[in-house]
Amino acid sequence: MLRINDTVNGFSGEFMNLFRYIICCSLLSISSPFVSEASHLDSNEVLSLKKAEELALDYNKSLQALRQSAEQGGLRYKQARARYFPTISFSAFAKETDKGGAIGYEGSLGSSVRLDQVLFSSSVYHGAKLSELDAQLLFWDLVALENTVLFDVRTTYFSVLLAQGQVEVQQQNIDLLVEASDQELRKQELGEATLFDVRRSQVAVANALFEFYRANRELNEAKNRLLNLLGEDAEMFEHLRLVESDISLITVPFLTEKLETLGVRRFREEQEDGVEKIVSGEDAVLIAQQRTLFSADEMDYWEDFARKHQPFIQSSLVQVSRAERALKQKYGAYTPDVGVYGAWTNNDQGAPKSFGEAGVSLSWTLFDSWEREYGVCELKSAVEESKINLKKSQQATEADVYDRFFQLEEALLRYFSADQSVYLAEEAIEQARNRRSIGVITPLEYRDALQSLTEARQTLNQASFDLLRSYYALWNAVGFSGDTE
Hints:
The protein has helices at residues 4-31, 49-59, 61-82, 122-189, 195-229, 253-262, 264-272, 281-290, 296-309, 311-332, 371-437, 443-478, and strands spanning 87-98, 105-120, 337-347, 354-363. The chain has 485 residues and is an alpha+beta fold. It has a single domain, classed as Outer membrane efflux proteins (OEP) (Up-down Bundle), CATH 1.20.1600.10.
């Protein structure tokens, strides 16, 4: 026999199950915006710079958000243009009227269709033009952000390679220091070295390990920054692998030509032929003062390119056009608005029950206490301000282009110097190894030679990165997105 309590308990159980289901669905709907998107980077894919650029242009979150804003700007322009076309409206009513007496209440129905068409309206015309210019401003904002994102992707991509190179340098340094420490230990066993010498060599290894761990942390941070620029989640960190293993300048003919001008390859060949010649202090000063790496024609070319393609200059040009258009719209306030209309009305009460009408409408403000005059003066000032800002943008861009050339020139010279240092340091370490084996130099002097080699290699890696970064900074300054292939 079913008791009341059983029925109540059964009902309560079903209710609680339903309640739990609703809560789960609600939590899923709330948390769904935070669910990670599917990765666009294959876990087995080796990432090239070209692929990284494509992924960033497609999936970078800042770019995606600004593209939505640009799309909204285009839709606002279409809305403004729609005001040129006719509008059709429909209205209807139903009512009851108290007639009093024996008649009582009497119902009535009615409807009306109306068409309005603008023939002439300065505010509508110039408003559409202003909306178009606003959409152009958003377009150039998008172009500027695309260039910035590409620059960030390129520099971050090479910063990963730089960090990888620094990790390898530290690993090589550790291997050499461990080898030296083992040799000191063997010498101690033979009575040719003291415990003090052994401990100092072991401390050098420990210090090198510290630098290795720091370089590895910088590598991980660089990878994380690159993933963020690509619109990827941090969970893809373990799968990120790059095509290149180190920074190579061969893929940039512009830079290799400039390095040939400096004589990087010639220096290597002369050293291999036994010619003992390096750049002296006087030679270095002369190279820096002559500034012959970039011709006037090259600099003029990049300046002209910037004037035509730099997004900030183009945006300033649009701002001038917008200010001039707003002034024309204000002048248009002196003119009337003219339109035509037509309507058809149907009413079951009165006579006639159905009728149509059409006509011309005119609205003209004849006097508004000089509000329009003051508005015109204000917008004339805005036009002049926009022209000044345009000139300011042009001058700032030209100065930025020159700064990028100075930066690139410095990077080329630093790379040339660093390349010499590495070659000479590698040669010195071979000589030090031979001299150490016969006891001509002390272990401390050998470790100094190792430290010089490590610093030279790190400097060359940094110089390679700075050179590529300066090159792409020039691209960014002139508004050139470029193609790395």
